[in-house]
Give the backbone structure.
Amino acid sequence: MPEGIAVSVPIYYATGSKKRALMYAFLSGLAEPAGALIGGLLLLPFLNNFVMGIVFCIIAGIMIYISFDELLPSAEKYGEHHTALYGVI
């Protein structure tokens, strides 16, 4: 839901069209099931516990990188950087 709001609100305010905002929010929401389907079809022949572990490690690494690269500098710049660092530790 937050993703749909993040997509539709700027489009609505930029165009004034609720229909266009809803359409783009719907289309952006279709990307996740489509990605899951494509990824599932590509990995299905190789799918076992080892491959799932590798995929989850890659995803976790990407999320940790984004947190360290984007969120911590923003916390230091705009607010409570000590609290954010305590949370990381």
